[in-house]
Amino acid sequence: MNISFLLSAAFLPLFSFILPKGRHFAITITTQLLVAFISIAGVFTAYSGVSLFDSHFGIGGDLNIVPDAISGFFILIINLVCLLTTAYSQGYLAPYFSTKGKTEMALHALSLVWLQVSMILVVTLKDGFGFLASWEAMTISSFILVMFEANKRETFKVGISYLMQMHVGFFFILAGFVMAYGKTKVFGFEALTEYFALNSNVPLFLIFFVGFGLKAGFVPLHTWLPNAHPAAPSHVSAVMSGVMIKMGLYGLVRVLCSIQSSFFEIGIILLSVSLLTSIWGVVSAIVQKDLKKVLAYSSIENIGIVGIGLGLGFLGIHTGFSSLSYCGFAGAILHILNHAIFKPLLFMGAGSVYAATHTRNMNELGGLSHKMPYTTTLFIIGSISICGLPPFNGFISELVIYLGMFQNLAGQSLREIIMLISSSMLLALVGGLAIFAFSKAVGIAFLGAPRKPLDNVKEAGPWMLMPQLVLVLLIVLIGIFPKLFLNAIAPAIDMFPLVGNGQVAVEPMLASLGEVSWISLTFFLGIAVVLFIRSKAQQDVVISQGPTWGCGYTAVGSEQQYTSTSYSDSFVSLAKPIVKVSKEFEPLEECDFFPQQGSFKTGSNDLFEDMVTVHPTNRLAKLIKRAAILQTGYVQHYVLYALLFILSILVLTYFKLL
Amino acid sequence: MNIVIIVLFGVTLMYVSVAERFDTYVKLVAIQGILLFFLAFSELSGSKDMASLVFVVTETLVFKAIAVPLLLRSIIKKMRVAKVHTKALPAFYSLLLVLFAMGVSVVLADMLKIGRIEKTFMIAALFTVFTGLILVIAHKKIFPHLVGFLVLENGVFMFSLAVGSEMPFLVNSGILLDLFASVLILGLFASRIGKRLNDPNVEELSTLKD
Amino acid sequence: MMVGYLLMLISSIFFLGIVNRIKSIASGRKGSSVLQPFRDVLKLFKKGAVYSETSSLLFRVAPTVAIVAVLTSMLVVPFAGGNAVFSFSGDFVFFAYMLALGRFTMIIAALDTGSSFEGMGANRETLYGLLVEPAFFVMMGVLAMITGLTSFTEIFKAFNTIGDYSLLLGLLFSYLVILIAMVENSRLPVDDPKTHLELTMVHEVMILDNSGFDLGLIHLTTFLKFGLYSMILTNLLVPPTWAIGYQVVCFTAVVAVFSVLVGLLESFRARNKMGKNPPYLLTLTALGLLGLIVALLIIQKIA
To answer: Residue A161 burial by CB count (10 A; 0-12/13-18/19+): exposed, middle or buried?
Structure first.
């Protein structure tokens, strides 16, 4: 596909600066469709060898890139999510037309298109300069998108912090490329294969891991995620969580595909960091009361699950078990796909709730199932699949990872057995914790009785519901017909450093998945049968409605329901050392006949945020303040500094030190 | 057969880390004594040394399984409380630590490459020692500390069984150490200290420093 | 193939009846007939229902999903060394997660009523469910490690319980399975099915608002889960090489002994203090890990 086509198409939204606000959406979606068409045509060309455009159409050979299997996979995901979220934004941004100016909306539209284009370029370009330039473009466009509501002070702070942390990651990636350039004189991903063949793998891998891990959201580098996602508008959070953090994973995957030695160390590092990430992510998700923060932490958990798959794959290479390596990598790639499908679905649902009720605090929501039935149903399907429950797609990727673990237990040494069994135990625990977090999110926010009055709440418009419906369709398809999708992504899995012939390992897994299709269909058949029997049985009896049983109390109010804080309280009492839940309140006086005004506030702080982000920056700020003595404000002093500088250069050159 | 006894021993160790009533502690210590008796019997029945066999058997059965629990019960009667009310570490975390100690003892025993030791006994011994230490760490009251010390003693005894085939005399010295230390500490508690300190926090002992 | 499935269905009819009978006899009463719980369910199927105004479509569909989830997980459990109806690599993962799906739907249906009772039951049920999952997976991991196979059918075909120390492992895991079954079905000592007050229960309080056909479905789900776990127990304890007649007899014996044990346990043991339940559930995982060490000893990875 031709890069120049992509880049020129990306300049189309500049027209939105001169057109009225109502036209912005049309321009954005057309441009995105055009970009999608160009990139998917490129993927199609690479896959099937059939060229859709004449080769003399292009300007030069350099700008015609043929994407390989991994790039193709990511391009498809990027286009899918970007198109669907832009369609969603048509309904979501409608209330903002009156408050935002034309320039702001135009800038927003431009950034949406540029985000898509830069992400496609990130996964296609292997040359160092091009990659880094597109990475930077991606950061800047997502920054502009996050700052959509920069008039709020909180959003402003969060946006700046996001920009800074992304540039720290950029620095690490640049350092990695420079290190590889120093040894191989090639600047880009192609240098890595040569570098890893001759030098020690682990240090360079660690540098790239920190750089890409900051983008992906591995613990303890995740602190920007739970702040940036709630601050951004919902369609932006959907894109960020669905595909942008996968760009970090893409970079990691490219690095991993070039690794030649020290498989065990890298596998252990990946596995332990990912286990910590998933457990930390889901435990933090349980104690949040902001609906979008729950989803943000759950993204961290799923990134951890992908990392577990990658780590297991490397362990498989080290021990020589082809099935472990194949299943690990296959599970990781499949989970990237699955997460890119159900996370935008959940964020869109949360966005619809925010658009209707203007609050994200779950303690003030509830009872939405009557006013917004479609959104509720779609959100429930999304949560079932994110918990990894059959018959939807989340289960398939976890099953593949479990297959890798369990099929390869016999015949291993003690160390590997302990690692495999403890990872399976911890993955099961993560699944159970995810059920906790999402039963809370669904039950408290959507179901039950309304905790605050819901007078103006209406169901979301068709533009907001249609993308969610498309995603649900994909969820059900992947859940019932996993074999098709696994065969489709097989070329991407083959690019990993596998053990031996991948074919030997893939047969039992595909057989398993085929049976899963049949048993899922049986499940749906069973539900249909029982529902039929039930409707027949309930035909002749009296069905009535009444208030919820209140144990004889006649004045049951909706405030007596469980809130999100009380629901997670049983877990918090268990996990107090790790999650810092703070309670601020004024204790009641001893002899108080008439109660005074009181207040009670609970909140939770992220442990890593304090350790990794807040304390070091405060110390750094204190240190830098000392240098402020040089800034006196007098022009004479500044000229004196310049004079001293010239003098020192003369002296040093005289003594041949410079 | 040894494996069954060691598995049961492991189960008692897990329950001892979550137990709260002093009576439960006494029962578990008695069960451990009986299990050690069976273990010692099956280990040393092969050797021709009748005297040491009788000695070991009486020591484990009479002392560990009968005398020590009786002593503990008399201590409980002198105290006014019958269960642990406050702990330094919640039960959930002490059990997690015990599970972690189990894994560590398996890995450690695997890494040791000493002569002809019985690996199963080594694992059980390390596990018991770690559990005894965890008991001491996790509690504030003196009675669980006592029980932790007794569990530690059982662990040391198991060590001597583990290397028993190399140095049969070590088993006897291990038992003598057991007798001596237990009589000293427990006897002291039963007669002297138990009367004065009624279920104190161990932290109050820190007033004795310097 | 279908013999096992039918046996599970039939045994589930009698299981709770035997438990209740034993509990009555232990209290000195004569007790109702063994078929009474099943007759109650049939009576419920003919009754009308009252639905809460706060609840939505989910509340009406959830019991159906729960029972079909249990019925589907029963499809992968084999009997007597034969094949289960469906058998594939990793089907025990499917089994565990299918049961978790049933639990998840019941939990959000409980939150759907907007009642504080049901919220309490829901959050306790989630917590205990998540603590039991690792125990099950450790057990299956150990079985997969010893036999080198990864499907219920194949594992139980190869798990020979005569000779070596397999009997010890089988007994240890049977104890674990019994405890897991007690937790999953919300029996003592984790939960008390007799009382219907919020202080003492987990599962019973989640179904306070269900009535009529749905309540019958929920009771049937509990019966079926007992039958399911009895089948797993039989598979763990009885060697697969015996003739099918003996296997059926053994299965009936296991069901009888299991139900009598449950009845006696419920009569003589008090419920745990609610705060003590998490450490109690962690002991299940501890038992699983103990089984892991025994298995490692058996296959000579250590010593």
So the answer is: middle
* Per-residue pLDDT at A353 exceeds 70: yes
**Quick one: B173 exposed, middle or buried, by C-beta within 10 A (0-12, 13-18, 19+)?**
exposed
Per-residue pLDDT tens over the stretch B155-205: 888 887 777 665 567 667 777 777 777 777 777 766 666 556 555 666 666
Q: Are A208 and A264 in contact (CB under 8 A)?
A: no
Nearest-neighbour CA in chain C from B50: distance (Å): 29
pLDDT digits (tens, 9 = 90+) for A421-437: 999 999 999 999 999 99
How far CA B78 is from CA of A556, B75, B144, B160, B203, in Å, comes to: 52, 5, 15, 34, 21
Specify the residue for token string 């959509």. Answer: A148
CB A145 within 8 A of CB A115: yes
Instruction: Please give the tally of structural domains in chain C.
Output: 1
Answer whether C127's CB lies under 8 Å from A570's CB.
yes
List the domain boundaries for chain B. Answer: 2-208
**Residues from chain C contacting residue B14 (CB–CB below 8 Å):** 283, 286-287, 290
Q: What angle, rounded to 10 degrees, do the helices at B50-58 and B22-44 form?
A: 170
Longest Cα–Cα distance in chain B: 53
Contacts of B125 (CB under 8 A, 6+ apart): B155, B156, B158, B159, B161, B162
Residue A62 has pLDDT above 60, yes or no: no
H, E, C per residue of B12-50: HHHHHHHCCEHHHHHHHHHHHHHHHHHHHHHHHCCCCCH
State the Cα–Cα distance between residues C83 and C4, nearest whole angstrom.
Answer: 9
The span from the CA of A372 to the CA of A456, in Å, is 12
* SS3 at position A451: coil
pLDDT tens digit string along A441-483? 999 999 888 888 888 888 888 888 999 999 999 999 999 898 8
Question: How confident is the prediction for chain B on average, in pLDDT?
Answer: 79
Interface mutation target, options B2, B6, B7, B9, chain C, most CBs of C under 10 Å: B7
> pLDDT under 50 in chain C at which residues?
303
Q: Mutate which of B95, B111, B117 to disrupt the C interface (most C C-beta within 10 Å)?
A: B95
Which residues of chain A neighbour B92 with C-beta distances below 8 Å? 574
Helix (H, G, I), strand (E, B) or coil at B195: helix
Asked if A418's CB is within 8 angstroms of B93's CB, the reply is no
- The answer to whether the Cβ–Cβ distance between B107 and A414 falls below 8 Å is yes
Closest CB to B3: pick one of C279, C283, C294: C294
Minimal CA separation from B143 to chain A, in Å: 26
Residue C288: domain span:
2-28+36-298
Residue C303 lies in a domain: no
Shortest distance, CA A196 to any CA of chain C (angstroms): 34
Q: What is the crossing angle of helices A393-407 and A482-493, to 10°? A: 60
Establish if C192 belongs to a structural domain.
Answer: yes
pLDDT value at position A500? 63
Label the pairing between strands A600-605 and A580-585: antiparallel
Residue pair A426/B99 in contact (Cβ under 8 Å)? The answer is no
Cα–Cα distance measured from residue B139 to residue B142, given in angstroms and rounded to the nearest whole number: 8
Pairwise CB contact (< 8 Å): C302 & B7: no
A residues 440-469 near C, CB within 8 Å? 440, 442-444, 447-449
Contact A418 B103 (CB under 8 A): yes
Chain B hits for A418, CB-CB cut-off 8 Å, are 103, 106-107
Task: List, in sequence order, every residue forming a beta bridge with A188; answer none if it has no partner.
Answer: A127
Tell me if A548 and C115 make a contact (CB, 8 A cut-off): yes
Q: Two tokens at A312?
A: 């297991």
Q: Are A429 and A279 in contact (CB under 8 A)?
A: yes
> Has residue A49 got a pLDDT over 70?
no
